[in-house]
Amino acid sequence: MSEIREHITYEDAGVDTAEGGRAVDAIKQMVAETSRPEVIGGIGGFGGLFSAAALKEMEDPILISGTDGVGTKLVLAQVLDRHETVGQDLVAMCVNDILASGAEPLFFLDYVAIGHIEAEHMAKVVKGVADGCKLAGCALVGGEMAEHPGVMRPDDYDMAGFAVGVVDRPKMLDPANVRPGDVILGLPSTGVHSNGYSLVRKVVGVDGIMPGTPEAAAKKAELEQPLEALGGATLADALLEPTRIYVKPVLELLRGEAGSCVHALAHITGGGITENLNRALAADVDAVVDRTVTPAGYSMGWDVPPVITYIAQEAGLTADEACKTFNMGVGLCIICSAEDEAAVTEALVALGEQPFRVGTCVPGSGKVVYSDEQR
User: Fold this and answer.
1) Taking the complete model, does pTM exceed 0.90, yes or no?
2) What are the b/e assignments for 37-71, b being 16+ CB within 10 Å?
3) Domain 17-171 belongs to what architecture?
């Protein structure tokens, strides 16, 4: 006679489906606030429904998709127990990427893996996602909250996002349109955004600290002290400032009279200026970025956020290392011809932006170089 097996429920195994249901209920209103006319139904089905009828008005509609995560910035958020803004980072990393082709983001989906679901905690995280979708004008049509007991710590979580947008092929931006003599304009970042945090974590000393511990409380108190180097701001605030979403002003630019003047866009993310601006260049064009390097240090041709300067100095980065790690205060680059620079700048200022000159384009081989390197 076989032995009677122990009765083990799914909850005994660490998955609380009831709390998962409460978490879904907690975010329904947030999701509804991101809706667009094309959304069919709401969350709760097996897939998000979105009407493509409006695409029929385009000559040749091109769907553009993007996926990304927040990265190890989440470690800092967990140590500081601040979770309300990382969702905006997630949306920004995806929608800013598809914006680089001139696309309008239509809808967004998120995936959150967590050790143990708590409805209140998940509501904070998803609120940031919903806020980001509203800033981008796209609908949050669905997502997944996956509980991973035994694989992740109860308070540990990771996030991934997926965005779909559309652009009419005749209006799609193409790096092949970039020519020598073009100018590169920049739109300011809100700080570090969501890249370089593996280095940031080492500089501020959060590696190895477990959330919810006395060590985490002590580190939180330290990072919440005002710093003179940051103009009185705290590292906690500066480092968790969410990634800026550029969608609405840039789409307004592209749809206006100055839109035809724009040749290409570059979203400055992981790899900094050096490894992102080159993605918006034609194969026979280099970008010369304004930079001054002296024995006392280095500066860019625009204001670099104090938090980026602080982290770079604390890490002892060279100018090249800093420009290959951080956005250096440039969240998005806009390339246009020199004769159209005034028109594009004027249009951006009218939209409430503060554009600045990043550099110029010269004959080359598709690389980013810096003015201090030129002989």
Assistant:
1) yes
2) ebbeeeeeeeebebeeeeeeeeeeebebebebbbb
3) 2-Layer Sandwich (3.30)
